[in-house]
Amino acid sequence: MTSSVLYYPTIEFMDEAWLKSSLCVWDKVYRIVPDSYHPRDSDEVKIAVDNGVVENISLTEQDLSQTADEFIEFVESVDILPAGLDGYDEFQHRLHPEKMDARVLPILEELSRGINVEGFLDVSSEIANLYMLYLSNVVSRRRGINKLTDNGDMFSVMHYFANDGNFDEWVYNEEAEELSSAFAISSILPNGIESIKIEKVLEFRKSTEDNRKHFKTKLDELIKELTKIEDEGFSDKKVKEYIEELEDNNSDVARRVTDFFGEFKYSLLSVGLPTAVSTLGLLSGGGDLFDLNNIGKSCFIGAVSAIADASRSKRKDWRSQDSFYYHQMNNVFGGERGIRFTVPNYHRIYEEFIND
């Protein structure tokens, strides 16, 4: 797991609290900003930029060319076009022309309402998200950084593109050998982080640098382990050891938060990765593979969709940089009875994208 992440799909951050909480996990958050565009940042975000923890990425010709290659190949050769990409009627999102190669611009112009007064293409959310998923994939891969979103729908749809569209309409195929899955873990954050000044958050980051490094290392090792398990008889002892270390690290961070801020709360960090069916069968303990099954005090795993062709699977070659993340702030609670999560049903969101 790299120490930095690429935020997608938008330029501006929709929620300052989300950015602050993400900076409690990662060293730096990157975003894609066209050279001619000046982000409409809040004062808090400007301070984060000035301190080098939020950094803009300028696109290169190689970025745009590779994105165009992959985007055009997808449009022309995908086995099935997901139903979620048919909604061209509502032009509610915008794309900056500097984010696309000259070969892609005419394609997107045909699917747009035109260029608005700010110089953006007015397109549907489906088209905007489709292109930004490809662009973020290329940018993150070429720079060796993970992708991070604040949108549960985008996280669900990213499973499709991260596995090269190797899916069919049978999302819940019980005969499949492999699955695209989500691993989720609670993350300790200062309570009331939305009202805490960014300077205080930056100070807290320095005090928890070792914890953050250990957390990322162990999470990276666990993801690697989860993608490699194939044998149903494999002992889950090693996986449990990783989980216990992650949870122990959370306890250490909780003490630090208490020293700094007095109280803490939980957010949820979900990671996308491919797994063998036997892996989820092993860890779920006989539960429904398509539900998030509790595999620790604060760790969960569940399938998002069945991979159509195991021979084309990326699982065995999966790298830490291929993983993608969703950091959820809302509806995650801590209380006297322990942690209670209300999380998106990723597999249902995914099925709507494919079939509805």
Short recap of the structure:
By secondary structure, this protein is of the alpha/beta class.
What does this molecule look like?
With 356 residues, this protein is of the alpha/beta class. The chain has a domain of 178 residues. It has 11 helices and 13 strands. The strands form 3 sheets. A 9-stranded mixed beta sheet has the order 3-2-1-6-11-8-7-10-9, sandwiched between helices. It has a two-stranded antiparallel sheet with strand order 4-5. It has a two-stranded antiparallel sheet with strand order 12-13. Strand 1, helix 1 and strand 2 form a beta-alpha-beta unit. Helix 3 packs across helix 5 and helix 8 runs antiparallel to helix 9. The longest helix is centred in the last third of the chain and has 25 residues. About 1% of the residues have low confidence.
Helix content: 25-40%
Largest sheet: 9 strands, mixed
The neighbouring-strand order within the major sheet is 3-2-1-6-11-8-7-10-9
Name the poorly predicted regions: 333-337
Shape: globular
Number of strands: 13
Overall pLDDT metric: 83
Structural category: alpha/beta
Instruction: Name the quaternary structure.
Output: single chain
Distance between the termini: 34 Å
What is the H/E string?
EHEHEHEHEHEHEHHHEHEEEEEH
Number of helices: 11
Keywords:
single chain; about 350 residues; alpha/beta; nine-stranded mixed β-sheet; two-stranded antiparallel sheet; 11 helices; 13 strands; about 40% helix; globular
